[in-house]
Design goal:
The complex is a heterodimer of chains A (about 90) and B (about 160).
Chain A (H helix, E strand, L loop, with lengths): L1 E7 L8 H13 L3 E5 L6 E2 L3 H6 L7 E7 L3 H12 L9
Antiparallel strand pairs in A: 1-4, 2-3, 2-4
Chain B lengths: L3 H4 L1 H4 L5 E2 L7 H14 L6 H14 L3 E3 L2 E2 L2 E4 L6 E11 L9 E10 L5 H13 L2 H9 L3 H12 L1
Parallel strand pairs in B: 1-5, 3-6, 4-6
Antiparallel strand pairs in B: 2-3, 5-6
Helix pairs in contact in B: 3-4
Classes of the chains: A alpha+beta (about 90), B alpha/beta (about 160).
Chain lengths: ~90, ~160
């Protein structure tokens, strides 16, 4: 079961530091393969911190997420929550 | 992709910012040794302020990005231009990466506080380059500072 959605990044520092760590941890904690990238560009494996860092996603940028696996829907829900929550309101 | 900030490797990472001898085995000391390369080249006004900014970032979450790579970084008023430094470790430095791999290639990035997107640009360009096996191998095997610069020039451009 493959699911995808595109999310606009809210944290001020972008997909970086703590939001990025939570993002990668969330992917690893779910039973789904997740890829991420710009809406019109190449996707990278979302469970790899260096790959996520390489995207250079800043505040206000859009990120496309594609998930495949039993947890596809729930992992996207959780990732969307992380990406749309200001960093100071984000809890682990 | 061409980013002006990473076009001039010699300006971003002069040979004096590269150390090919074994760094301290402990993360904080390793970061300090990289910072000192930038301090010695006269680019840091306030060493303690730069160090505090780097350590604050590490406390938030580690800069060990996996694949044997650590990229400690900070935005700080202590520098007035973007600067990169590099060292490598045969023993590996424990950066607490999620993949459990000790860092054998360590880059330090310092960017002026008002540097806007420079910080993300350098970090993402460098990460993109380091995802390639051959780039990491060349950095591991580089015989001198200019080989490190050449590798980065080709990989980041």
């Amino acid at each position: 079961m493959s699911r995808e959605r595109t999310v606009e990044i809210v944290p001020e520092a972008g997909l970086h530091a703590r939001p990025a760590a939570l993002f990668v941890e969330t992917v690893t904690d779910h039973e789904a393969d997740v890829e991420a990238g710009p809406p019109d560009g190449d996707l990278v494996p979302a469970q790899s911190m260096i790959a996520v860092t390489s995207l250079g996603v800043g505040q206000g940028d859009e990120l496309r997420l594609v998930a495949d696996g039993p947890d596809a829907e729930s992992v996207l829900d959780e990732l969307e929550r992380i990406l749309t929550t200001p960093e100071d309101e984000l809890e682990a | 992709m061409t980013d002006t900030i990473t076009d001039d490797i010699d300006e971003l990472i002069p040979a004096s910012h590269i150390s090919l001898s074994e760094p301290p085995a402990e993360k904080a000391a390793c970061i300090e040794s990289l910072l000192d390369l930038v301090v010695e080249s006269g680019r840091v006004d306030d060493r303690q302020a730069a160090l505090d900014a780097l350590m604050e970032r590490e406390q938030e979450t580690t800069t060990g990005v996996g694949m044997g790579i650590g990229i400690p970084h900070a935005k700080t008023e202590a520098v007035d231009r973007p600067s990169l430094a590099f060292t490598r470790s045969e023993a590996g430095v424990d950066f607490g990466s999620m993949d459990g791999e000790p860092a054998t290639l360590v880059f330090l990035i310092l960017v002026p506080k008002e540097g806007g997107e420079d910080h993300l640009t350098i970090l993402s360009s460098l990460s993109r380059a380091l995802m390639h096996d051959d780039v990491r191998e060349r950095l591991q095997e580089a015989e001198d500072e200019s080989e490190v610069q050449d590798t980065l020039r080709e990989a980041i451009a």
